[in-house]
Amino acid sequence: MTEQEIKFKEKIKAIQDTMYVIGGKWKIVIILSIYNGNKRFNDIVASIPKITNRVLSKELKHLEENLLISRKVIDEYPVRIEYTLTEYCLSIDELAGPMEKWGKNHMKKISGK
Amino acid sequence: MTEQEIKFKEKIKAIQDTMYVIGGKWKIVIILSIYNGNKRFNDIVASIPKITNRVLSKELKHLEENLLISRKVIDEYPVRIEYTLTEYCLSIDELAGPMEKWGKNHMKKISGK
DNA sequence: TCATTAAGTATACTTTAGGATACAGGTATC
DNA sequence: GATACCTGTATCCTAAAGTATACTTAATGA
């Protein structure tokens, strides 16, 4: 295997890993919702059109396992849960920004083709 | 709906569109392979570990429909097909670069947690 | 005539993602 | 005791993504 091939396979792995962590229809969207000030389960559900509670529940676990959000139990009257972004999660901005920009441009490109 | 909410929904849509076009396990990887000099179907299959020809075939069609690659029939003896990136496709670099970087860093983060 | 090569297609699967709906469990209020 | 609030879970289902393996078509040259 040439050096170029080795580098190519490393790139593949890194990109597929990123896709595993933040890929799919909802993950970045959920992060943005929390970033926008929604901390509680039902607020997040309400803020994202068409998401269901089952999907949100699963995705929140995935994001927590990957150190992107943290879950705090607040022991008041009906027990509240607060989701917050970790410091580390802010690095997602390096991806979300470009993705938003690219998506907007692509819509124009395709609709006017 | 507040202005902030409208902007949020636009962001969601743009990101979900991007995910639709370049999301999944293979699409960016295929683009990188062509970028690396592989033009022919079997070369691309060979360059990407674990991809199958059926999957590659489907993904190439998707990428062509989204104006990211072009398919040229070369009418020689066993008919050859050449895939090349479109000019427009180069804009993917704005996404692939950050994704590669983020993925590499994330691997470190998770393995050392 | 037979094998070879390139670029896929066909068929039949398995796995993962996502969706619809119902409701549980604890606590506080009426 | 009944009811409502909150954060989910349970169950069941559909659709999309991905996999495995064999086959097709057309031309060519041994």
Automatic annotation (TrEMBL), chains A, B:
Any Pfam family from its record, for instance, is HxlR
| Cross-referenced InterPro entries | HTH_HxlR (IPR002577), WH-like_DNA-bd_sf (IPR036388), WH_DNA-bd_sf (IPR036390)
Per its UniProt entry, which superkingdom is the organism in? Answer: Bacteria
PROSITE patterns for this protein: HTH_HXLR
Q: Which UniProt keywords apply?
A: DNA-binding, Transcription, Transcription regulation
Residue ranges annotated for the HTH hxlR-type domain, each copy included: 13-111
Q: What is this protein called?
A: Helix-turn-helix domain-containing protein
Species of provenance: Mucilaginibacter dorajii
Q: What phylogenetic lineage does the species belong to? A: Bacteria, Pseudomonadati, Bacteroidota, Sphingobacteriia, Sphingobacteriales
